[in-house]
Specification:
By secondary structure, this protein is of the alpha+beta class. It folds into 2 domains: about 190 residues, Fumarate Reductase Cytochrome B subunit, CATH 1.20.950; about 60 residues, no CATH class. The protein contains 9 helices and 8 strands. The strands form 3 sheets. The protein has a 4-stranded antiparallel sheet. Strands 1-8 form a two-stranded antiparallel ribbon. A hairpin with a 2-residue loop joins strand 4 and strand 5. Helix 1 packs antiparallel against helix 2. The longest helix is centred in the middle third of the chain and has 29 residues. The protein is globular. The chain starts with a strand and ends in a 14-residue tail after the last strand. The C terminus is likely disordered. It holds the Pfam family Ni_hydr_CYTB.
């Protein structure tokens, strides 16, 4: 049996699970906040005498009763039971997202905002801690920064993943590097900056935020879009963990030790 190798440092493991906790509560409390006004706009303000919406979830009255309707870029969809109108007929919920996906599960904007801001700052603090540790121990340079050979090998790596052929190596494969790098250095910073742009206090202190994102409503729409991309990344990430061997992958992220496949090279500490 192939021997175990040390793959994940304590800093990587602690920050990883802290991010998981933060992102779950940020998503569910964010949906609570979204439900206070379940629509998104482009620009500085929402339209009254004009329509600049890109997404709207609502309940509409029909001859057969209320139905959920979602409008996306002018196209309308019946989303009864999921968005707009959800829950059993005996206890209908008329809100954007169902209460099962929000924290708290009942309508409470104030509590949702408190939870959201707490985990937002915890996420920022954890990201800064990870960044310092990653620069100090070489994790970012060694494991996450895509190099020329990674980009050249990316097409073949994508094809291998589509065929469910995974390389259980000591190092991240090109697709892992690119996806992790994008999430940590693009999506998470964009999420933080768009969140700050929605704060009137931050806009007064840093008015350039409004200029960068084209208005507070545009920042809110981008914030929502990035959240959707993070959810998509999470779902794909979980699927890849299951497909690649959940026991081995979870052991790596809990204990740090990983069992590479027999056909891959194992690197010594000096070679890393």
């Amino acid at each position: 049996m192939r021997q175990l190798v040390y793959r994940q440092s304590i800093w990587t493991r602690v920050t990883h699970w802290t991010w998981v906790l933060c992102l779950i509560f940020l998503l569910m409390s964010g949906l609570q906040i979204f439900n206070a006004r379940p629509d998104l706009y482009i620009g500085q303000q929402s339209g009254f005498g004009f329509d600049n919406s890109v997404l709207r979830m609502s309940a509409v009255e029909t001859p057969t009763g209320p139905e959920g309707q979602t409008e996306l870029f002018g196209h309308q969809f019946d989303t009864t039971g999921v968005f707009g109108v959800s829950g059993p007929k005996s206890d209908r919920q008329f809100q954007g997202f169902p209460s099962a996906l929000t924290v708290p599960s009942y309508r409470d904007l104030a509590t949702g905002r408190v939870i959201h801001f707490f985990f937002a700052w915890l996420l920022v603090g954890t990201l800064l801690l990870w960044l310092v540790a990653g620069l100090f121990n070489g994790h970012i340079r060694r494991d996450l920064l895509p190099k020329g050979r990674d980009l050249r090998a990316l097409p073949n790596d994508v094809l291998s993943h589509l065929r469910f052929r995974f390389s259980h190596g000591q190092r991240y494969n090109p697709l892992q590097k690119l996806s992790y790098f994008t999430v940590i250095f693009a999506l998470l910073p964009l999420m933080v900056l768009t969140g700050l742009t929605m704060s009137p206090g931050m806009d007064a202190a840093w008015p350039w935020l409004l200029e960068i994102f084209g208005g507070r409503q545009t920042a809110r729409s981008l914030h929502f879009a990035v959240a959707c991309l993070l959810v998509l990344f999470f779902l794909v990430h979980i699927a890849m963990v299951v497909a690649a061997g959940p026991i081995n992958e979870l052991r790596s992220m809990i204990t740090g030790w990983f069992r590479p496949a027999a056909d891959v090279e194992v690197f010594s500490e000096e070679e890393k």
